[in-house]
Specification:
6-stranded antiparallel beta barrel, single chain, Pdz3 Domain, 17% helix, 3 domains, Thrombin, subunit H, 26 strands
């Protein structure tokens, strides 16, 4: 039986902006020393935390085309063509969880819980039902922020410091699994930096064995100090039920998303201006490193923050502000949780020697201007909309590395480009051996060519495709 990943929706609690918070001193960890200590209860913690965890209900109206089954038969369509059909509406409902993080009604949940919703309602632990509006959503972290209309202060949970937890710490997961009602489960932190889980763009998760099931999505992962240290977002399972492998978005990322959406209106993450690959055993041996780990830089943007800080191709980044960096996903996560302004301290190995460099935290620039342009005419890109890639656009689209050139942002259904297989996200490298470096150079290449045969070079993800199209 194949393994599969079941997405859940999780919500975390938010406190004051990160800059105004002081991380609490870590509690002393000790094993129980008596039978009385073993029999201690989580009840006081649950009474304090559970009222701030809510149920999130969404409703969406889906319009579907209705035709006779005969119209789907290829033999029938051969003689009668595509036949028009009627349209019917169908209502879709979904259920998740959420966390109230501010007294004025700010609620955090998962993006996939509210995606496409026409109506969002929140049910509190005291059975009050409130209408909610979407402040903003970030698909790349699978987080969404809501606001509920209320005339009184609401119970809240504070976001803790997810970097302060350790493997083996006790945690509680609070949510509404399978819609049975608010449920509390307990477990431990199984891992603190899972990066090889393909759930979202920022792949950096807390793993726990506390039981998490469908409906827990957006619920709180609570530490023993009563603070939220993660938003439950996914499980790994054969059957769709909990097998003790659950994942939560760390609270430090949740804080950055909430602060950006509530206080700033949008999320702007710092631009690092460099990219690289994980240092595995072979690379570590070739560099003379004591052990694998870190990110070896393969690209450094000219005049970017990394270059101005003195970083060079071949440097190995091993830490950010004293926190270990094991791979590119960890590097992106660490940078992504920081606010624009100020500097961040990097631990770097250069030719085997350790040093520290400071990188400015800057917004990604819109350079070159994106120059969004729809294309028409008799050429393979007819029906597309293209734009110049800049660091700002690359960040919006979630592109890794230092992508440059011209990217396809939209493809009109039924267009020439769609029939040829051109897709959004494709980067145009060459047309008839002419390098494409800007929207203007692409337009010149397709408008001036009188060829009946087109030779195209397109980058899709990590692959470069060379295709030939007959005009």
């Amino acid at each position: 039986m194949k393994w599969f990943t079941v997405l859940l929706v999780a919500v975390a609690a938010l406190g004051p902006p990160a800059a105004a918070q002081t991380a609490p001193a870590p509690a002393t960890r000790a094993l129980p020393e008596s039978r009385g200590a073993v029999l201690q209860s989580f009840a006081p913690l649950v009474k304090r935390a559970a009222p701030a965890v809510v149920n999130v209900f969404t409703r969406r109206v889906v319009r579907e085309r209705v035709t006779s089954p005969l119209f789907d038969d290829p033999f029938f369509r051969r003689f009668f063509g595509d036949q028009p059909g009627g349209e019917q509406q169908r209502e879709q409902n979904s259920l998740g969880s959420g966390v109230i993080v501010r007294k004025d009604g700010v609620v955090v949940t998962n993006h996939h819980v509210i995606k496409g919703a026409d109506e969002i309602r929140v049910v509190l632990s005291d059975r009050r039902e409130l209408e909610a509006t979407l402040i903003g959503s970030d698909e790349r972290t699978d987080l969404a922020v809501l606001r509920v209309k209320t005339t009184s202060d609401l119970p809240t949970l504070e976001l803790g410091d997810s970097d302060g937890i350790e493997v083996g710490d006790l945690v509680l997961a609070i949510g509404n699994p399978f819609g049975v009602g608010q449920t509390v489960t307990s477990g431990i932190v199984s891992a603190t930096a899972r990066t090889m889980v393909g759930i979202s763009d920022y792949r950096f998760f807390i793993q726990t064995d506390a039981a998490i099931n469908p409906g827990n999505s957006g619920g709180a992962l609570v530490a023993m100090d009563g603070r939220v240290i993660g938003i439950n977002t996914a499980i790994f399972s054969k059957t769709g039920g909990s097998v003790g492998i659950g994942f939560a978005v760390p609270a430090n990322m949740v804080r950055a998303v909430v602060t950006g959406l509530v206080d700033g209106g949008k999320i702007v993450r710092p631009w690092f201006g460099a990219s690289g690959q994980a240092v595995g055993p072979d690379v570590a041996a070739s560099l003379g490193l004591a052990r694998p780990g870190g990110v070896i830089l393969e690209q450094v943007a000219n005049n970017g923050p990394a270059a101005r800080a003195g970083l060079k191709v071949g440097d190995v980044i091993v830490s950010i502000d004293g926190r270990e960096v094991e791979d590119p996903q960890a590097l992106r996560f660490r940078i992504g949780t920081l606010a624009i302004g100020g500097r961040v301290r990097l631990g770097v190995l250069r030719q085997g020697r350790a040093q520290q460099l400071f990188v400015a935290l800057e917004a990604p620039p819109e350079d070159p201007p994106r120059q969004t342009t729809p294309l028409q005419g008799r050429h393979p890109f007819s029906g597309t909309t293209v734009a110049n890639l800049s660091p700002a656009l690359a960040e919006e689209l979630g592109l890794e590395g230092l992508a440059r050139g011209v990217i396809v942002t939209q493809v009109r259904p039924g267009s020439v480009a769609q029939r040829l297989g051109v897709a959004p996200g494709d980067i145009v490298l060459k047309i008839n051996d002419a390098e494409i470096t800007s929207v203007d150079s692409l337009r010149r290449a397709v408008e001036r060519s009188e060829r009946q045969t087109w030779r195209l070079s397109i980058k899709r993800g990590e692959r470069v495709m060379n295709v030939q199209v007959q005009g």
